UniProtKB/TrEMBL annotation:
Coiled coil: none annotated. It comes from the Eukaryota. This is UDP-MurNAc-pentapeptide synthetase. It holds the Pfam family Mur_ligase_M. One of its GO terms (molecular function) is ATP binding. The keyword Transmembrane does not apply. Keywords: ATP-binding, Cell cycle, Cell division, Cell shape, Cell wall biogenesis/degradation, Cytoplasm, Ligase, Nucleotide-binding, Peptidoglycan synthesis. Residues 116-303 form the Mur ligase central domain. Gene3D superfamilies: Mur ligase, C-terminal domain, Mur-like, catalytic domain, MurE/MurF, N-terminal domain. Residues 325-450 form the Mur ligase C-terminal domain. One of its GO terms (biological process) is cell wall organization.
Length: 461
């Protein structure tokens, strides 16, 4: 069984909460789980109000909140005449959330897997959960809850009786992965890759690799570190003495080796062959994208290091279903084929998506609808130019661009002289016009950074 989300969230008593956050019980209340969102809070939960630069969720502590069945508040203050539970904390409530998460981690007796990487975290997390399901119950973080708040909420939502927890960890600057690893203390620590992402906060890929490598720094005897043998920047990272190192990739000598991969069934599936301890397994990933084979290899490295037979891993991964918005193949009622990859974008993941577009059998046009890739720093226009060059190399029939970065790159390369091109400054504008250019049999890739809201175009198609 795989659990994702707040179902069966652990119950906290008032004394446990007070101990975890170093707070004071002002008013007692029954035990309950913890929520930070009044929009989705359920009766019987404690409310922990977060405070940001432009908001303070303490303002939602009203009689209406108690009417929803909230049993108590964990915060700095409550409203007048608040008659429900109250555990008072001093200082940042975000720090209180992290303390609760660390307390939850201490009382979790299962195996916790933490993974990071520039691309592929959410897909690989889902594959790891699938591969481990054969030997025990698995909890995985919902969505892409991979920052300090998301990781903390993931730990709070993890049932204490599951055998495995799989959490992803993201970052945009140095020190963040170290903090997240300190909160969740993974037994298995995974680095998938290092690529061009969040370059606005880093001077080089080497700096990104150092930041990703923070996940390894506090590994202790008995922990397992799973590393991409094909990525030199990952292989250059130091692993603490006494910690088991497991390698995955195409490189000879990898503990789990990707022997071969090929697109089959018109490019809609990937036949994958893996090898481990002289045993091989062949299976089919029922989703487009050759890059998924390496994600599967990483998942197999984690699972086999925890005792899952390779054959069972292959059987499990043959049931993989794409995470929504990530290499998700959809067919509209009017016969247009969509590769819905709108959740996020980086140069590496966009190149992978364009390769998937090229591999899928097409009876109409191949169309790439691309939104700007954000947070790439001073080299952003050059990186957008490289993606457009890849569109030319793979002979895309129509390129529709959203955002000022892709427009600048297209103007620099004079792409409009070599390929049919459309442009809009925002996804909503393109969504209103794009259907005029699409017909039955077309294969359409839609991809862009989260902030470009490319899902509006998918919905329009």
């Amino acid at each position: 069984m795989i659990i994702s989300g707040p179902l069966n969230s652990p119950i906290w008593t008032a004394p446990e909460i007070a101990e975890a956050v170093n707070g004071r019980i002002v008013r007692w209340a029954p035990p309950g789980s913890v929520s930070t969102d009044t929009r989705s809070i359920h009766p019987g939960q404690w409310f922990l109000p977060l405070v940001g630069r432009s908001f303070d969720a303490h303002t939602f502590i009203t009689p209406q909140l108690s009417a929803k069945g909230v049993v108590g508040v964990i915060g700095n203050r409550v409203c007048e005449n608040w008659d429900m539970g109250f555990v008072q904390v001093d200082g940042s409530t975000t720090e209180s959330l992290k303390r609760l998460a660390m307390f939850a981690r201490k009382r979790f007796s299962g195996c916790l897997i933490g993974l990071t990487g520039s691309v592929g975290k959410t897909t690989t997390r889902a594959m790891i959960a699938l591969a481990l399901e054969s030997i025990g119950s698995v909890y995985q973080s919902p969505g892409n809850w991979n920052n300090d708040i998301g990781v903390s909420l993931s730990l709070l939502g993890m049932p204490g009786n599951v055998g495995f927890g799989v959490l992803e960890m993201g970052m945009s600057k140095r020190g963040e992965i170290l903090e997240l690893a300190g909160i969740c203390r993974p037994n298995v620590r995974v680095i998938l890759n290092v690529g061009a992402a969040h370059l606005e906060n880093f001077a080089s890929l080497e700096e990104i690799s150092i930041a990703k490598g923070e996940i390894l720094r506090e590994a202790t005897m008995g922990d397992v570190c799973v590393l991409n043998a094909d990525d030199p920047l990952v292989m250059d990272l130091a692993v603490p003495a006494g910690v088991k190192k497991v390698l995955f990739g195409r490189r000879q000598g990898s503990d789990v080796r990707l022997v071969s991969m090929q697109s089959i069934d018109g490019g809609l599936k990937v036949e994958t062959v893996l090898e481990h301890n002289e045993e091989t397994v062949k299976f089919v990933i029922p989703s487009p994208g050759l890059h998924l084979a390496l994600n599967a290899c990483a998942a197999a490295a984690v699972a086999t290091s925890l005792g899952v037979p390779l054959a069972l891993v292959g059987k499990s991964l043959s049931r993989f279903i794409p995470v929504p918005g990530r290499s998700e193949f959809q067919v509209t009622t009017n016969g247009i084929n969509i590769i819905n990859d709108v959740y996020n974008a980086s140069p590496v993941s966009t190149k992978h998506a364009l390769e998937s577009l090229s591999d899928i059998h097409c009876y109409g046009k191949r169309v790439a609808i691309l939104g700007d890739m954000l947070e790439l720093g001073p080299t952003e226009i050059k990186l957008h130019e490289l993606i457009l060059q890849h569109c030319l190399d793979t002979r895309v029939d129509l390129v529709a661009l959203v955002g000022k970065r892709f427009l600048a790159a297209a103007n620099n390369l004079q792409v409009g002289q070599e390929i049919n091109m459309l442009h809009a400054y925002d996804s909503e504008s393109l969504a209103s016009d794009i259907l005029e250019y699409l017909h039955c049999g077309d294969v359409v890739l839609v991809k862009g950074s989260r902030g470009m809201k490319m899902e509006k175009i998918v919905h329009a198609i």
